[in-house]
């Protein structure tokens, strides 16, 4: 019976955080949640992580900052509905995630909202995966 | 009216049973090759691969075996326990696989991106093919095959493996590991004396039981064992029908090392 239920359990678990080649906490700080809206300047659809970059206005300094966002592997975020064309240069997106421990303008994305359509896509974050 | 009820009522009574029967996936039997050997991969005409594990070699979370040791029962040597706890305190920052080094030893079966097992009995060998960096392990299956003498083995991530069948279980015995990998993501230590005995049993079509005995006189006071269940997957990683492993190279666009170094002030 334990084995019978395995397939179902795996299906349920597969909707949760994705395993990465490194632990979330090695690089990101769950206590530094970040939510930012900006225009996409670059998308790298590669392993081990899809990276994208957005320009964000820092209202305190009045300067434009480039933020780099890590997502899961391409195959992992495909499972969340992404395609290579989901996000294009110039698109406005709202990103929710956690900032890097080093305080850089870099984070681990948990979800991305495409402002143009309002669609929210999971980003294959490894947050919550046991190290 | 009563005739109507007599037809409808049994249907209503049977419906929940049917629904339950449908919700319970049918257990497909273990497949066999024409010569009677257990087939550890897709049956002819089928597709699929073994999926990422959700278990651990100790503890009973996820798909771990109920017989696994608790952490406190692992026969660590003192230095090895201290090193494990130190690695934990660093949140995996020092993990070689985080910098894309191979997932050596039993970690081969803990990484995502799929696994196929290719049996070539006519050549007395088996291959474990992982989607993770397209790594692979060769298992020598010649009857009576022995490991080379210790001084002839060049330590490596996957070591020297010989295998044989014990009934329906494939047994793989491996020595000759290097010390440049962590056996699990959590940082379980090992030394060059590591000797793994792995047992693969296909309980049914969709379930592979993986059990491993860790025999390392350099890091543990006695051999110990654990394992987990690995599920078969018949859809691609984007959930489309198929079940084919895809390409994944960790070093393709690897940025994490740079960030780890920044964090360390290097």
Briefly characterize the structure.
The complex is a heterodimer of chains A (131) and B (266). With 131 residues, chain A is mostly beta strands.
Q: Which structural class fits the helix and strand makeup of chain A? A: mainly beta
Q: Trace the largest sheet of chain B across and list its strands.
A: 1-9-8-7-6-5
Backbone shape of chain B: globular
Share of residues in strands of chain B:
15-25%
User: Can you give the mean pLDDT of chain A?
Assistant: 82
| Biggest beta sheet attributes of chain A | 5 strands, mixed, barrel
User: Could you say what the CATH topology of chain A is called?
Assistant: OB fold (Dihydrolipoamide Acetyltransferase, E2P)
Report on this model:
The complex is a heterodimer of chains A (131) and B (266). Chain A is mainly beta and 131 residues long. Chain A is built from 2 helices and 6 strands, in the order αβββαβββ. Chain A has a single domain, classed as Nucleic acid-binding proteins (OB fold (Dihydrolipoamide Acetyltransferase, E2P)). Chain A is 10% helix and 42% strand. Chain B has a domain of 186 residues. Chain B has 3 helices and 9 strands. The termini of chain B are far apart. At the A-B interface, helix 1 and helix 2 of A face strand 9 and helix 3 of B.
Keywords:
heterodimer; A: 131 residues; mainly beta; OB fold (Dihydrolipoamide Acetyltransferase, E2P); 42% strand; globular; B: 266 residues; alpha+beta; three-stranded antiparallel beta sheet; 3 helices; disordered N terminus
Q: What is the secondary structure topology, with strand pairs?
A:
The complex is a heterodimer of chains A (131) and B (266).
Chain A (H helix, E strand, L loop, with lengths): L5 H8 L14 E17 L6 E8 L4 E8 L3 H5 L13 E9 L5 E9 L4 E4 L9
Parallel strand pairs in A: 3-5
Antiparallel strand pairs in A: 1-2, 1-4, 2-3, 4-5, 5-6
Chain B lengths: L1 H22 L25 E2 L27 H12 L25 E6 L4 E6 L5 E5 L19 E7 L2 E7 L19 E10 L2 E9 L8 E10 L22 H8 L3
Antiparallel strand pairs in B: 1-9, 2-3, 3-4, 5-6, 6-7, 7-8, 8-9
């Amino acid at each position: 019976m334990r084995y019978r239920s395995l397939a179902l359990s795996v299906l349920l678990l597969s909707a949760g955080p994705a395993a990465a080649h490194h632990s979330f906490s090695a690089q990101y700080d769950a206590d530094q949640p970040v939510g930012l809206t900006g225009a996409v300047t670059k998308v790298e659809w590669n392993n081990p992580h899809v990276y994208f970059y957005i320009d964000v206005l820092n209202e305190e300094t009045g300067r434009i900052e480039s933020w780099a966002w890590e997502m899961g592997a391409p195959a992992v975020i495909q499972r969340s509905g992404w395609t290579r064309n989901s996000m294009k240069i110039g698109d406005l997106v709202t990103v929710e995630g956690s900032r890097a421990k080093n305080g850089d303008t870099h984070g681990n994305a948990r979800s991305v909202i495409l402002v143009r359509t309002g669609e929210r896509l999971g980003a294959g974050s490894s947050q919550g995966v046991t190290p | 009216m009563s005739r109507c009820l007599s037809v409808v009522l049994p249907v209503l009574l049977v419906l929940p049973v049917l629904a339950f029967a449908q919700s319970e996936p049918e257990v497909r039997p273990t497949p066999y090759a024409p010569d009677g050997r257990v087939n550890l991969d897709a049956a002819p005409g089928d597709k699929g691969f073994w999926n990422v594990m959700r278990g651990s070699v100790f503890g009973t979370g996820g798909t771990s075996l109920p017989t696994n040791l608790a952490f406190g029962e692992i026969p660590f040597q003192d230095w090895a326990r201290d090193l494990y706890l130190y690695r934990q305190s660093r949140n995996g920052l020092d993990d070689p696989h985080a910098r894309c080094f191979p997932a050596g030893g039993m970690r081969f079966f803990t990484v995502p991106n799929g696994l196929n097992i290719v049996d070539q009995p006519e050549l007395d060998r088996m291959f474990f093919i992982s989607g993770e960096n397209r790594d692979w392990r060769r298992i020598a299956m010649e009857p009576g095959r022995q490991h080379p003498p210790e001084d002839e083995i060049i330590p490596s991530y996957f070591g020297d493996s010989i295998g044989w069948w014990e009934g329906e279980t494939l047994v793989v015995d491996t020595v000759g590991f290097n010390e440049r990998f962590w056996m699990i993501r959590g940082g379980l230590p090992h030394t060059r004396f590591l000797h793994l005995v792995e047992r693969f049993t296909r309980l049914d079509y969709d379930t592979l039981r993986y059990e491993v005995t860790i025999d390392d006189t350099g890091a543990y006071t006695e051999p110990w064992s654990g394992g987990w269940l690995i599920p078969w997957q018949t859809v691609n990683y984007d959930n489309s029908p198929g079940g084919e492993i895809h390409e994944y190279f960790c070093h393709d666009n690897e940025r994490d090392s740079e960030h780890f170094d920044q964090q360390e002030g290097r």
